Amino acid sequence: MSSLPPCPLCHSTYTYEDGSQLVCPECGHEWSAEAAPAPGEEARVVKDAVGNVLQDGDTVTVIKDLKIKGSSLVVKVGTKVKNIRLTDGDHDIDCKIDGIGAMGLKSEFVKKA
């Protein structure tokens, strides 16, 4: 069993050392062995559509009309969402939108306000 940490991007366990770098053969990501997080301690960074780092409590703006599954409602472009909460999973933002209610958003469809 390997004592190397998994890839921080794709979480592959097949990482290997190449000099002072760690390399993932599945996605090609390279990172420094010194900067690697300890096992069980992953540094999770959520970025918006333009690359700004998001944090809990931020205000974001929707950049694309988003249809809501199971409903005829649409979240329109330019809708401001206040006090977001970051979560794990496919939809990495939990929030409440005025007129719609609680829902999950993907960070790729918002930008930091």
TrEMBL record:
It comes from the Bacteria. Coiled coil: none annotated. SUPFAM superfamilies: Prokaryotic SH3-related domain (SSF82057), Zinc beta-ribbon (SSF57783). It holds the Pfam family YjdM. Transmembrane segments: none annotated. Residues 46-113 form the Protein YjdM C-terminal domain. Residues 3-32 form the Protein YjdM N-terminal domain. Belongs to the YjdM family. This is Alkylphosphonate utilization protein. It comes from Pelomonas cellulosilytica.
